[in-house]
Each structure stands twice: as structure tokens, then as C-alpha cells.
Design brief:
Layout (H helix, E strand, L loop, with lengths): L5 E5 L6 H9 L3 E7 L8 H15 L2 E6 L16 E3 L4 E2 L5 E3 L5 E8 L2 E4 L14 E3 L4 E2 L6 H13 L3 E4 L5 H11 L4 E6 L2 H9 L5 E4 H7 L4 H14 L4 E3 L14 H13 L3 E3 L2 H6 L1 H13 L1
Helix pairs in contact: 2-3, 5-7
Amino acid sequence: MKQGLSLIATIPAIQNYRDVLKVFKCPRISEVRFNTGSRSPYTSLETVKLLKEFAEKENKKLWIDIKGRQLRVDAWADPLYECVELNHPIKVDFPARIAFRNGSTSQISHVDGNKIFLMKPPREVLGKGQSVNIIGSTPNILDGYLTKQDVLYLEACKELNVKNIMASFVEQEDDLEEIKKIVGCDAIICAKIESQKGIGFIVSHSLQSLMAARDDLFIELNGNYKMMLEALKIIITSDPNAICASRIFTSLERRESPDFSDYEDLEMMYQMGYRRFMLCDNVCNYAFDNAIKAWEEFLDA
């Protein structure tokens, strides 16, 4: 039986109290993460307050995950709509492509602030909040690291004395400083490493907490398997307590039991040295019970 492993769960839709409480009460879950990219019917202050109450009652560490420079669709887009509106205005060097979560890509023809014009329209409807990646060019974010929503959630954390912050696409010291200016210098920031620039940053800096956000990182590395393996090794070497996230038991999104490749993946990351793992939004929303069962089988192997 494997020892010393811990599992982090992402909060399901917050208005679904039954599922949210199930996650908080689960003895296999040691920490919980709220993805601020998800919709909440409450204000940022009300949301964080509610989550803090649950976390304190169940004695679980609470993480508030802000989006930072992660690019996300800011308005629903029809497949025939050749312009995608993002949450940040950006500047890119051409040629460049935009990658969508379904695996498809489109060549970018023009950029106007936060509007990305495409050579060919996306294959499917793009929902507000879906994350995207720019391939072939590192986008220059023109409005700063934090989004307006990030600021609201960080201000709520400051008011409620919530110190644990996960930060997406950390690439430089200023990213962390923007968070500390709001939450305070004693903020505990888990830097999510999701790009080549992020890897370069942690090589030259000593950070207190890291996450291998594998989905975006692999896309940003243009699917280069060798570079991905090296990046994963750098992260766990830089922080022996780093979190392994994304692609954990994702086969449960389409079937009742996990594929063998899910167990193989976990075993490889375990052998590499990772001891903390995090379940993503969809798995926690739609397959939490099956994921916990699969996790227990992995621990017993």
C-alpha cells in the first residue's frame, strides 16, 4: 500500500450543496480547491465566506484558484463566428495558432485587443469561460496579470483572512507580487506552472509551492513529449511537495470505471516523486464517487 499520498478535490458547482458537502466531508480528500473560473450565483465575498465555513467545519485546507494570465473565452461564440473574444487583450507575433479544449486549432489572422480573428472558424460552439492556448507565439498580456474577477476574489480573501491562493500561468516575480499586494505578504501562493516561460522562472527562482498543471503545460509545449517529461522533473525537483494536476482519472468523464492508462499515468507520476494529486472540475462534478473508489484502488496497489 502506498503511503504519504494526498488528494485535492475541486469544488463542484457551488450551488449544489449536497455535492459540495460530499467533497468536504470525504475522508480521502485533504485539501479543496475552488476554481474562480467557474460560475457562482453569489458574490465573490459570499462565495469565499461559504467555502471557508465548510473548510473550517470539516478541517480541510481551502485553496482559491485565480486565473491570472490564463486565456479564456469571454463571450459565447457560434461555430460560424470567426472572432473569439478573450478575457485579456493580447499581442502576438505571427504566425500563431489558437488551441481549443476539444483538441482543434485555428490559425490566427488578426488580433484586435481581446478579439482574435481566425482563418477558419472553430469546429464547435465556444462557451464563456473555456480556456484556450496560443501556440507558436508567447502572447503579451496587455492589461496586467490579474483579471477583474481575480481582484474581487483576492479582496474577498483579504477580508476573510484566506491565505491559500493557487495562481495560474505564473511566469515572473511580478505575478506573485500582484497577489501579495492585495492578500498580504503572508499569502501562501501555489504557482501553477503551465508554460515554457514558467519552467524557466522556477529554474532561476526558489518558490514555496508549485503545481504541475499538465493539461495547459503540454499544450504550451506544443505536445513535445520529451520537453514535457523534463518539465515535470524540474517541477518536482524544485518542490518535492509539488501538486500533480490535470488528466487525473479523466476517463471517468465518459465511463463508470477508469481506463488502465489512468492508473499507469498515476504510477509514473508517483515514481517520478509526486505525492500530491488534484482532481479536476469535470471529474468532481460528474464522477466524484468513482474517482474516490479508483484512488483507493491505486493506493492499495
